[in-house]
Structure formats: C-alpha cells, structure tokens
Amino acid sequence: MQDIFNYSIFGNTTSSYLMAFGIFIFGVVIVYGFKKYILNRLKKWAAKTDNSIDDFLIEVIDKYLILVVYFGVLYISLHTLLLTDDFKHGLRTAAVVLITVLAVRAVVSVVNFGLQSYWHKSVNSLNGEKQLKGVLGLINFVIWVLALVFLLDNLGVKVSAVVAGLGIGGIAVALAAQAILGDLFSYFVIFFDKPFAVGDFIIISDKMGVVEDIGIKTTRIRAIGGELLIFSNTDLTNSRVHNFKKMEQRRVVFKLGVTYQTSSEKLKAIPQMVKQAIEEQEGAAFDRGHFASYGDFSLNFEFVYYVTGADYNKYMDIQQAINLNVFEAFEKEGVEFAYPTQTLFIAKNN
C-alpha cells in the first residue's frame, strides 16, 4: 500500500495527486455551499427591497465572482504539485485571460447598470433607448480595447511600440476627422446634459420641428411642413435652442385696436370685457390689460395672459375662444374694431 502512495507519475507521487484532488473537492464544496445557502438567501432578501442595486450586486457575484473563485480553487490545488515550466506558463496565461475577461464583463455590467439607472431616473421615457444603446456601445468598445491592451501586456507582448504608433496615427486621424469627432463629443453632451429629447418641439434660428432621432453624428428633426431637417450635433450644441416641450406655461401677448370714434366710457370698459373673456377659459390666467397707445388709425390695447402647459393646440383653442368672446362682447356694446382708413378733407374755394 505504501508503494502505491509513493508511486511517481510526471514527477508527483500518488499521494500528492490525492492531496491536490482533495483540496480541489474541498474548495468546490465550500464554494457550492456558499452559493446554495448564503447567496440564495441574499437573493431572496434583495428581492424584498425597493432598490435594484443589491439585486444587481448579487447577480454580479453569482455570474462572475463565483467563476473566479472556482478557478482559484483549481489554481491552488494544482500548485501543490510539481509542475513543468510550460504547464505553469499555460496555467498562468489561462488565469490572466479568464480573470481579465470576467473583470471586464463585470465592469461593463456596472457601467451599463449605472447609465441605465441614471437615464431612466432623469428622463422617464422609452424614446431614448436607442440613444442609450449607442452610448453604451461606444463605452463598451473603449473598455474592451483597454482590456485587450492590458491583457497583451500581461502576456508579455511589447505593446509600448504599438501604443506609440497608435498614438501618432490617432493624432493624424483626429486631425482628418475633426468634424466627426466634434459631432461625437457633442452627442455625449446632448446625452448627459439633455437640452432636448426625442419628441420635443424645438426651434433653432428660423428652423423648427419635432425631434425624431438623435444619432452619433446628426440629429433629425421633422419640420412643421413635413420635410426632414438634419443638423450636425455640433451645430445644435453651438446654437440657441428653444425647447417648448419643457415649457410649463406659455405667455401670450395680443393686441387689438378700436376706432377713434369710440367713447371714453366704452374705452374704460374694454379692459374689463377682455379680462372676463380670458378668465372664462379653463387653463388661462389673466395677467394684465391696458390702453397702450394711440395709433395712426386706431386706439390700441395690449393684453397679457398665461396658458398652462406646452400644448400648442390647447393655446390656439383658448385664443380662438377669447377672440370669439371679445367679438361678441364688442358687437353687443357697439364697439368697432379699427382697420386702416384714411379721411380726406376737401376745401371748397368760394
């Protein structure tokens, strides 16, 4: 029996193999017990909480950390044996590759979770899912490129010359694609600052319309006339953008003029008549009304009121109702609206 335990295979005795196997089995049982009894209880506890951070952290531990621990158990058990240099190098390479891949996947999961949580809390809309996927794709690409450079460096590949070459080439590409890179950075500015979103009605200079799509280089806006306006992201971030979707109330100023033949009593009554017409409309709040000026052919009044919300159709419905009410009130009181007229005085010579 003693000879069996002392029997040597590839430089290790049978007892050494049994000890390594025992360490591996013991470690696997410990990890399996942790996963089944402790981690599952943590999952049930996390499912009862209101936030999703604890659920996400437990999921990361289950998907990535447990695999690393399993491999660590195998790594430790194998290192109790006498191993050849080639086998040690291969084992080390496998460890570096596995840990790097799992670490990058964990980092990507954390970044994706953080950005998705930030986006949904700040926007509360599904219209930006496409924009969010574009940002996540770019960030994930950068993370994997950096991870690849790190992995090659740890595997003994001389990446300093490659990185230096890429740096010089990157400068040349940046100079050649300056406009594209500018639009790309402007895309990130729009994503994080959110001056507008898909579905917002915006005005840029003399152009206006509803935002249909926000891309990495351009933003597409559907104009009121139906045509599609395409702006580069840099143009939008460098312009003054009027966003009517975020408007809580609309300030409306309208004027009307009556004839000079209107009596002073009726002039004094006009502000109250228009005020009543405005206050009768639901969603409209009267601000002020005044006899503002003497015109060339009319006595001019100016009125200001507010409409709650940003709905343009609602504003036009209210304005139409006010115009009709004012017209009816003026017709009832005998007040005439002014329009451009000229009076000629003819002198007769005797």
From TrEMBL:
Positions of the Mechanosensitive ion channel transmembrane helices 2/3 domain: 137-178
Membrane-traversing stretches: 15-34, 64-82, 94-115, 135-152, 164-192
GO CC terms: plasma membrane
One Gene Ontology term from the biological process aspect of the record: transmembrane transport
Organism listed in the record: mine drainage metagenome
Protein name: Low conductance mechanosensitive channel YnaI
Coiled coil (UniProt feature): none
Primary location class: membrane
Family: Belongs to the MscS (TC 1.A.23) family.
Span of the signal peptide: none
Membrane topology summary: Multi-pass membrane protein
Occurrences of domain Mechanosensitive ion channel MscS (ranges): 180-245
